[in-house]
Amino acid sequence: MDGKFLDNEISIRIMEEKGCQKVISVEISPERFESEKGRVLKEMAKEVAIPGFRKGKVPIEVVERRLAGEIKSEALRNMLPQAYEHVIAEKGLEPVADPEFRDVKVNDEGSISFTVCLEVFPRFEIESYRDIKVEREEIAIADEEVNEVVKNLQERSADFQKVDRAAVSGDVVTLDFTPIEDGGTVDVKNRVTNYPVELGTGQIFPAFEEAVMGKRIGESGKIAIDYPKDYKPERLAGKKIEYEFTVNDVREKHMSALDDEFAAKIDSRFKTLAELKEDVRLRLLEEKEKEARRQREERAVDIIIERNPFDIPKSMQERFKKELQSEDERRREMAGVAKESDAEKQGQIDEFFDRIALRNIKRYFVMERIAEKEGIDVSEADLDRELQQIAEENGRQAEDIKKLFMKDHDRIANLKNRLRERKIFEVILGASS
User: Fold this and answer.
1) 3-state helix, strand, coil in the chain (%, to 5)
2) How far apart are CA 377 and CA 368, in angstroms?
3) Residue 236 has what pLDDT?
4) What integer pLDDT is reported at residue 56 of this predicted model?
């Protein structure tokens, strides 16, 4: 039996459709069920062992009489997935997840009936998605933005010179510190050595910073730290722990003057500070243009979603929402922030995640439908051109870049996805892109 059904062997009726949810009533004829029981009987007869008979030599009538219940149950178990596959193919459905079988029973006349509940991918015709008009944002780079970047470059290129004086705010000190156990014993196992701290930046607790300020190289001290109740890691949360520390090194920050020499220090391509600032301006402009285009693309997607209403599978939305919640929890943990305890605020957060999940899943289906309708795909030639451009931008050989990407399946897959989306947005935004 190949699992296929004839028209007279199965009856299919869609009882309820709500969004992507479907409830389908299925009935299998007595003849088909009897056929499956006969097949199961033959298989069991090959393996069954009954006292007085050799394995595989038990008369089939005896097997049928002795194992009638098992045969019926096994045939029923076989019928459900076979019938489900037939329903999916017959109705052209695309299930999102495993089905739920309800009200499975063998009727008095020998037929099988059951209800199958499932979620399917949405089917919708997409229209009005070409040449979407989205207003362009006027982009300008203020002098203050350029100066801020140059100042950060100045900070990052600062030199730190060792000094023989007491530590002050702005210095980088190197510390050894060790927790002190109850009773005054030093916890050597948890000693931290040569830990660098830039004073005045909030890298360590304010009380610890205050204790270090004014210390010279080789000087020691003690400080008790009260850890907040929501502190991460949790083993320290709510505890008061005393530490002894020693200052190993004190270095003073020396900033370069903002002049032509500084510009050349940043990159030998620049002969003057003005050239460096112009390069910074161009890079900022490029970044803002990329972000502005991304926002225009996403606004265009929102317009298409508004023009083409459709439902999405609730299970997909729930899975996406849980991923967002997990990511939020990870970020909070890394930042040492406790989970929101206010029920109203948490409800607002959950509602926000719901909207994000709904919108992103709809975006996925919209992009897939457009690609399908327009026959958009990424060819090897497209990929080669993109890798060539990446190589040129990084001053590398195209062959080296290609080998690098081809070794990493995720990287090449992400590149193909970006190229595919780029082609889709060329259709969506058209001449306005």
Assistant:
1) 50, 20, 30
2) 11
3) 85
4) 66
Spatial distance between the Cα atoms of 73 and 150, rounded to a whole number of angstroms? 77
- pTM check: above 0.85: no
Q: Which amino acid is at 314?
A: K
Task: Give the span between the Cα atoms of 89 and 73, in whole angstroms.
Answer: 25
Joined together, the tokens standing for residue 117 give 């509940």
Q: Is the dihedral of CA 13, 15, 20, 26 positive or negative?
A: negative
Q: Give strand pairing partners of 176.
A: 246
Q: Which two tokens stand for residue 320?
A: 């996406």
What would the two tokens of residue 161 be? 């010179």
Nearest C-alpha neighbor of 64 from the set 28, 84, 40: 40
Helix (H) or strand (E) holding 193: strand 192-198
Mean pLDDT across the stretch 398-415? 89
Q: Supply 290's token pair.
A: 């990329």
**What is d(CA 19, CA 122) in angstroms, rounded to the nearest whole number?**
8
List of long-range contacts for 315-323, beta carbons under 8 Å, 24+ apart: 315/96, 315/97, 315/119, 316/96, 316/361, 317/354, 317/357, 317/358, 317/361, 318/357, 320/356, 320/357, 320/360, 320/361, 321/350, 321/353, 321/354, 321/356, 321/357
Q: Once rounded to an integer, what is the mean pLDDT over residues 185-210? A: 92
**What gap in Å lies between CA 122 and CA 72, rounded to an integer?**
37
| Whether the Cβ atoms of residue 221 and residue 242 lie closer than 8 Å to each other | no
Residue 341's Cβ-count burial label (10 Å; 0-12, 13-18, 19+) is: exposed
Residue 52 makes CB contacts below 8 A (sequence gap 6+) with none
Cβ burial, residue 143 (10 Å; 0-12/13-18/19+) = exposed
Kindly state the greatest CA–CA separation across the chain. Answer: 104
* Most confident of the following: 46-50, 230-234, 271-275: 271-275
C-alpha 45/C-alpha 62 separation (Å) is 9
* Rounded Cα gap, residues 257 and 151, in angstroms: 10
Q: How far apart are CA 405 and CA 380, in angstroms?
A: 13
State yes or no: pLDDT of 229 exceeds 90.
Answer: no
Domains in the chain with CATH codes: 7-119 (3.30.70.1050), 159-254 (3.10.50.40), 312-432 (1.10.3120.10)
